[in-house]
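User: I'm putting together a teaching handout on how sequence relates to shape, and I'd like one worked example. Could you take Signal peptidase complex catalytic subunit SEC11 from Australozyma saopauloensis, show the sequence you're using, and then write out its predicted structure as tokens right after it?

Assistant: Happy to. First the sequence, then the structure tokens directly below it.
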Amino acid sequence: MNLREQLTQLLTLAYVFLSAFVAWKALGLVTNSHSPIVVVLSGSMLPAFDRGDILLLWNRDQQARVGDIVVYEIADKSIPIVHRVLREHHSTEKQLLLTKGDNNMQDDLPLYAKGQLYLNQKTDLVGTAKFFFPKLGYVTILLTENQYFKFGLLGLMGISAVLTSE
């Protein structure tokens, strides 16, 4: 393979990654969420959502309502949590929410930051779940939890690259 073909392949790969990045950022702007798509990682929302379901979030609502399924992040914790709004309190300037997983026995108070009694709708919410796609995110779970799957997939991609370059 000559230099021109190698550069063409490199530019094509860069175009694919750049296109995915631009699509992600555009979706983030439309939904007003820094993470417009999330994967459900646990069974805490059964039977509404199962592990591996992909949720499309929307963060343009003025206030969340009791019964809405929201995704929130807690300071110093990297994994977003998908749970239902159980109770809400609001004033003119802010809305406070208490959440709970449908399959959990108690509310999320132990999950919140130390001393935090409620979630702030403006600062803690990533978005409200509007659509879901069942089981499509299970590949993400396999990649993060199973090192053999991850290395096997990387190996297949390497073998594919070597075989197609000839």
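A couple of points you could highlight for students: The longest strand covers residues 81-90. The helical segments are 3-31, 138-145, 147-164.
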